[in-house]
Write a structure and sequence with these properties.
Length: 388
């Protein structure tokens, strides 16, 4: 660890002293574990001894052969391997969770941890201060409670795909694992609340979250809209339905999102586009009318915007105080001056992988990169033999 990272860690580690056992794979549980590790907790990742976490095989490979997905989701952790088919190994992990852990986090297939004597009821009965977090696919009850699931399935079943993309086109998935990562985030919210409660009453609890509940929760606005008139919400495209103009427009060299969803901003946009008569057009007098007549409005805006590059429009729109943003590729975003100024993409050394940092600062300090993801069983000797 660099001196700079060490100093930052000392300055703010809100979860320092908390020990987390992560019996997790794929995305949701590892993402929750990474958040807690970034906040200072000692996160111990438990993996199978043969191939480890499935994410070790996902994504592009760094020069040393490690997978990009695994690095992104498992930084700031220590790692051990446990063979759950071995009775002695199972007993060691059970005892370790009961005697050493403050938090246990798991997203194994339904019933798996219970079968191995590692379930929430058994461990919290043995240690009432333990906080145990389950991540399932469809939730604890209902006809699908025992079914497995992945992020794309939940985006489909939870309705997210129904509002994503353009009308008349096939369903598409949101490009990032919004359900998996969102579930991990909700788990941390629940765990932090349980930690606060434990500090007050001296007792832990069982926290349950699921991918499906997260997917449904992300549909908050859509559920509210559907409740108004019983109609399914429209697909959102690049903007948000109900507001106009509020979407991406093609410039001569790429796309630019323009947001002018109120009368004041629309009047300014009309001036920038040299169309001062638009606000008095009966079709465009209010946001509701502009949205109702969006096809006609876009037919007027699109050919004007297409004449010039993004940088031209960014300049004139910024000057007029109209919110806008280019649709950037990932490499553009990574090297953008704003991204670099924030320091949110972190790197141990010049030749090391660049990884996403936590989108939080504490007293001006962003939690630093303390360690890269562990190799398979890297800390077996340090943790397991030290607790034999």
């Amino acid at each position: 660890m660099t001196k700079k990272a060490s100093k930052a860690l000392e300055a703010y580690q809100p979860l320092a002293g908390e020990k987390v056992v992560e019996i997790g794979t794929s995305v949701a549980a590892p993402y929750a574990g990474w958040i807690m590790g970034g906040l200072g907790a000692d996160v111990i990742k438990v993996e199978r001894p043969d191939i480890g976490d499935d994410a070790r095989q996902w994504g592009r490979l760094f020069p040393d052969g490690t997978a990009s997905y695994f690095h992104a989701l498992n930084r700031d952790k220590r790692g051990i391997t446990i063979n759950l088919r071995d009775a002695n190994e199972r007993k060691w992990l059970r005892d370790f969770c009961i005697e050493e852990a403050d938090i246990v986090l798991q997203n194994m297939r339904p019933g798996s941890v219970d079968k191995h004597g590692l379930g929430a009821d058994e461990l919290t009965s043995a240690n009432p201060r333990l906080i145990y977090c389950n991540i399932g696919a469809f939730g604890k009850v209902g006809p699908l409670a025992g079914s497995p699931g992945y992020d794309p399935l939940m985006q489909a079943y939870g309705g997210i795909m129904s509002i994503t993309g353009e009308d008349g086109r096939p369903p598409i998935r949101v490009g990032t694992s919004i359900v998996d990562m969102g579930t991990g985030l909700w788990c941390v919210v629940g765990i932090l609340a349980a930690l606060r409660r434990r500090g007050e009453v001296g007792k832990g609890c069982i926290v349950d979250a699921s991918l499906y509940e997260t997917a449904v929760a992300w549909m908050t606005n859509s559920v509210s809209s559907a409740g108004v008139d019983g109609r399914n919400p429209e697909r959102q495209g690049s903007g948000a339905r109900g507001m106009a103009p509020y979407q991406a427009y093609a410039c001569s060299d790429g796309y630019l999102v323009i947001a002018a969803p109120n009368d004041r901003l629309f009047e300014r946009l009309s001036g920038v586009l040299d169309q001062p008569e638009w606000p008095s057009d009966p079709r465009f007098e209010t946001n509701q009318k502009r949205y109702t007549n969006l096809t006609a409005l876009n037919a007027l805006i699109e050919p004007i915007v297409a004449k010039y590059p993004r940088q031209h429009w960014q300049g004139v729109l910024d000057e007029a105080g109209i919110p806008n943003a280019p649709v950037q590729q990932v490499l553009e975003m990574m090297t953008d001056p704003q991204t670099e100024a924030l320091g949110i993409i972190q790197q141990g050394g010049d030749e090391d992988p660049r990884l996403m940092g936590m989108p939080l600062n504490f007293d001006g300090i962003r939690p630093p990169l303390s360690r890269y993801a562990p190799s398979l069983g890297e800390h077996n000797d340090e943790i397991k033999k030290g607790n034999d």
